[in-house]
Specification:
alpha/beta; six-stranded mixed beta sheet; globular
């Protein structure tokens, strides 16, 4: 279980102080799928980066399975069981796809295992295992390889930041099936940042973030009406299980 308590983060923007995360508190239970959605620039990706340790909140606490990981760096959080897929994956010139998958898994992988991981995200392994993680790969190819690195290892919690961005419809359908498989097994919790209706509809709970604040959070059937217009979210907060 992941639990975040009162996360606050400000940045300087043209000499003014801007709040990116404003007293964010929530939790994700074991085996649960939480989809985080809301307008672009509202704080969703910032929250994901704070959870994995790329950004550090000014105050607040983060717990994973009851352990305080607030002061853990990104490597320690990964070792503790958090997997993360960037919205814009980094490139590593000179490193092959096969080597990256092995590093993500924490062990050497057989070709057959690499093939399965790449097939899960819609890539032909024979064409990609020896390729470098550099500018010769398109944005969509990079995104799918990034997702495969998260799938290479079993985690307590996986965070996917807009996994649908930049991939074609066929690959997206394969990704949806993989999310359904992970969710059905209930071995890992999922946080998925997405605007995509198909992914949102898979959630156990939905959290709407805008202007650095949680505008609504609760069961899928209670929060979905809020997505018709964020200006209605406060009205939706009266529904059972939803807070705003």
């Amino acid at each position: 279980m992941l639990k975040a308590e009162n996360l606050i983060l400000h940045v300087e923007d043209n000499g003014a102080k801007k709040c990116l995360l404003d007293h964010i508190s929530f939790q994700v239970d074991d085996g649960e799928m939480l989809v985080i959605t809301g307008p672009n620039g509202g704080g969703k990706s910032t929250l994901a980066k704070v959870l994995i340790g790329i950004e550090k909140a000014e105050s607040g606490k983060i717990f994973l399975n009851g352990e305080d990981i607030t002061d853990f760096d990104i490597n320690h959080r990964a070792n503790a069981g958090i997997g993360y897929a960037f919205q814009q994956p980094p490139r590593f010139k000179g490193m092959t796809v096969q080597r990256l998958l092995a590093l993500a898994a924490g062990r050497e992988l057989e070709d057959q295992e690499c093939c399965r991981l790449l097939s899960d995200v819609g890539l032909c392994a024979e064409e990609y295992l020896g390729r470098q993680i550099d500018g010769t790969l398109s944005g969509g190819e990079m995104k799918r390889i990034e997702i495969a690195t998260v799938l290479a290892k079993e985690h307590t919690l996986c965070i996917f930041d807009e996994p649908e961005a930049g991939i074609d419809l066929w690959s997206f359908s394969m990704l949806i099936r993989k999310f359904e498989e992970i969710h059905k097994e209930k071995k890992q919790s999922l946080i998925v940042i997405s605007h995509q209706e198909k992914i949102i509809s898979m959630a156990d709970r939905i959290m709407v973030i805008d202007d650095g604040k949680i505008k609504a959070e609760g069961r899928k059937e209670d929060v979905l009406p809020c997505l018709e217009g964020l200006d209605k979210c406060h009205a939706c907060a009266g529904n059972a299980g939803v807070r705003a």
